[in-house]
């Protein structure tokens, strides 16, 4: 899953290329480049952040249930989630200031404050009603795009051209200080828009609340029917929603530029179907984990290495930017000016493999959380002495968990070390 988000962030760094009307991907390249663009638009763009939003909601509920099972009051557990959400916003601001304007941790922090306050302590019925309302709003936002597609008037919505993401993400900025200002401006807009009015994010996070209460990802073999239906319908709808934009971008379907721009009909269709793809991908990985378990053999070296990264997902996610931005951006080494969509995808794969190897090495040297997880845990829980005093006041029902045994603190929190 971290590989998918690493791949989905590649287009932001191709600042020397001429971009298409969507502003996301170059409008040029070899056959391999066009193939890479097609796959990313159909299967990754606007489809990966809902996947991580689901897992973030899942991890929030894991943390809440773990705290209350150990004797904390629901109010105390929510306070912990609130502190964690506030610190995630700080993490996001620092991430954007130094490296990546498209940071998602800040938006997840804002959403966790809102949804944690409204839904974490509520019953399943209230959570599902909230998800149903979000789904209804999502459908309503897709109505203009459906009408435009049905009428063949694809230029009715949007405006052209959309400013290239390489500009608003400051990848083309040679002045490091000016780049900081641009990144923070973009980050603030993305964080507030997604955190407060991000209907797709709300929908999948609430479904993550519901799924975590049933341990769908920890015990996938008990939910095979649900996972199969979700994978089949989710991936099919998600890819169909992204297919028109992909066809238009590579020139296989002639459409007005407005249709591909921000707010355009094809962009709106892709955004409305993004949550389906995200949920479908989660279900596919759940089915894969269930299949591994049915083999009743110890996981292989590769599976253990990937699981080690999953336990350190926040560190892995932040490491992507640490290995991307200083190397690719114009204010750094400027390698992004010399790469194409296909070679950038290979670069992203290499970056992901580096994080897998680093996490695997840490796991074999004794485990423990990643540096970002350790810092977030320290800030959210306080010092070990304060944490011990808090546990004593709440009359725990079990021993304090050793470091690194909790569910991951990052966006890919989906169970303790599970594939």
Automatic annotation (TrEMBL):
<feature type="transmembrane region" description="Helical">
    <location>
        <begin position="86"/>
        <end position="119"/>
    </location>
</feature>
<keyword id="KW-0812">Transmembrane</keyword>
<keyword id="KW-1133">Transmembrane helix</keyword>
<keyword id="KW-0472">Membrane</keyword>
<dbReference type="Pfam" id="PF04235">
    <property type="entry name" value="DUF418"/>
</dbReference>
<dbReference type="InterPro" id="IPR007349">
    <property type="entry name" value="DUF418"/>
</dbReference>
<feature type="transmembrane region" description="Helical">
    <location>
        <begin position="48"/>
        <end position="66"/>
    </location>
</feature>
<feature type="transmembrane region" description="Helical">
    <location>
        <begin position="187"/>
        <end position="212"/>
    </location>
</feature>
<feature type="transmembrane region" description="Helical">
    <location>
        <begin position="275"/>
        <end position="293"/>
    </location>
</feature>
<feature type="transmembrane region" description="Helical">
    <location>
        <begin position="339"/>
        <end position="359"/>
    </location>
</feature>
<feature type="compositionally biased region" description="Low complexity">
    <location>
        <begin position="395"/>
        <end position="419"/>
    </location>
</feature>
<dbReference type="InterPro" id="IPR052529">
    <property type="entry name" value="Bact_Transport_Assoc"/>
</dbReference>
<feature type="domain" description="DUF418">
    <location>
        <begin position="211"/>
        <end position="382"/>
    </location>
</feature>
<feature type="transmembrane region" description="Helical">
    <location>
        <begin position="126"/>
        <end position="146"/>
    </location>
</feature>
<protein>
    <submittedName>
        <fullName>DUF418 domain-containing protein</fullName>
    </submittedName>
</protein>
<feature type="transmembrane region" description="Helical">
    <location>
        <begin position="233"/>
        <end position="255"/>
    </location>
</feature>
<feature type="region of interest" description="Disordered">
    <location>
        <begin position="390"/>
        <end position="419"/>
    </location>
</feature>
<feature type="transmembrane region" description="Helical">
    <location>
        <begin position="314"/>
        <end position="333"/>
    </location>
</feature>
């Amino acid at each position: 899953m971290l590989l998918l988000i690493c791949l989905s962030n590649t287009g932001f760094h191709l600042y020397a290329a001429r971009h298409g009307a969507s502003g996301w991907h170059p409008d040029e390249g070899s056959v391999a480049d066009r193939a890479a663009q097609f796959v990313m638009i159909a299967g990754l763009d606007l489809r990966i952040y809902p996947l991580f939003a689901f897992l973030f909601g899942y991890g929030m509920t894991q943390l809440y249930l773990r705290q209350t099972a150990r004797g904390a009051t629901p109010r105390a557990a929510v306070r912990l989630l609130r502190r964690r959400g506030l610190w995630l916003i700080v993490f996001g601001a620092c991430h954007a200031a130094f490296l990546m304007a498209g940071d998602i941790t800040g938006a997840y922090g804002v959403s966790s404050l809102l949804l944690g306050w409204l839904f974490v302590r509520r019953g399943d019925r209230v959570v599902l009603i909230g998800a149903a309302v979000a789904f209804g709003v999502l459908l309503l936002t897709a109505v203009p795009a459906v009408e435009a597609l049905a009428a063949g008037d694809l230029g009715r919505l949007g405006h052209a051209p959309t400013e290239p993401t390489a500009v608003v993400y400051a990848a083309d900025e040679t002045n490091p200080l000016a780049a900081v200002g641009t990144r923070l401006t973009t980050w603030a807009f993305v964080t507030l828009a997604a955190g407060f009015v991000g209907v797709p994010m709300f929908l999948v996070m609430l479904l993550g609340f519901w799924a975590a209460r049933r341990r769908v990802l920890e015990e996938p073999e008990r939910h095979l029917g649900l996972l199969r239906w979700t994978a089949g319908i989710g991936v099919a709808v998600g890819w169909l929603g992204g297919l028109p934009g992909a066809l238009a971008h590579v020139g296989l379907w002639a459409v007005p530029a407005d249709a591909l721009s921000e707010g355009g009909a094809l962009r709106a269709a892709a955004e409305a179907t993004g949550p389906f793809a995200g949920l479908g991908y989660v279900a596919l990985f759940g089915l894969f984990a269930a299949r591994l378990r049915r083999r009743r053999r110890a996981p292989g070296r590769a599976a253990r290495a990937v699981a080690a990264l999953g336990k350190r997902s926040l560190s892995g996610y932040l490491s992507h930017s640490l290995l991307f931005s200083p190397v690719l951006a114009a204010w750094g080494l400027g390698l992004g000016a010399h790469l194409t969509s296909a070679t950038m995808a290979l670069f992203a794969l290499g970056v992901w493999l580096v994080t897998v190897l680093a996490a695997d090495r840490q796991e074999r040297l004794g485990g423990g959380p990643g540096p970002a997880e350790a810092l977030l845990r320290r800030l959210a829980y306080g010092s070990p002495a304060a944490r011990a005093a808090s546990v004593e006041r709440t009359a725990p029902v079990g021993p304090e968990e050793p470091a690194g045994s909790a569910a991951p603190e990052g966006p890919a929190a989906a169970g303790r070390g599970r594939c």
